[in-house]
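Hi U.,

Before I forget, here's the chain from the pilot set. I'm dumping it here mostly so it's searchable later in email.
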Amino acid sequence: MWFNPIKVGIAVLALVSPSILAESVASYPVGWESWPVVKESQNLPADTVLPPDTSLFIQESVKAYDWINNGLGSPLTIRVNPEKLEQYKTHGPYTDGPTVVAISEVQGIIWVTEHLSGLPIYGSYNRKGEDISSMHPSLEASFCHQCHDAYKDICINGTCTEPVLGVYEKQ
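Structure:
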């Protein structure tokens, strides 16, 4: 079993005092481009009008990421580590290591969810693997943790289940 005491310490600090760390905690998963696509969604444009019965999770997600692509939105692709596909189908529990990536296709943002000692940790990178968490507050690991933790009914074990496009499929 892989265990890195430095990462565990960083993860604990991020969970206990999220304001301490703005950098990504999850590592950039080399080779994510070959992981299977499990879901496609959308970072919606800033001027999106959501249906009145839209979940608070989707409302908060749209508000948090309405800046992407200068407010024009972007397709979002979700890929899962092939070693964790079966775990993803039941939303865990997850083994250690990179679990899932969400890619904002136009902006080139790669959100990473990794698991360490059963806990989700997060990171934000560009396509070159450079940490971009300081580019915007909604890309910081603490922001990811706070939102995923607040919506545990949707973000089970750190992976979220309600695609934003599902809001429009109901109409």
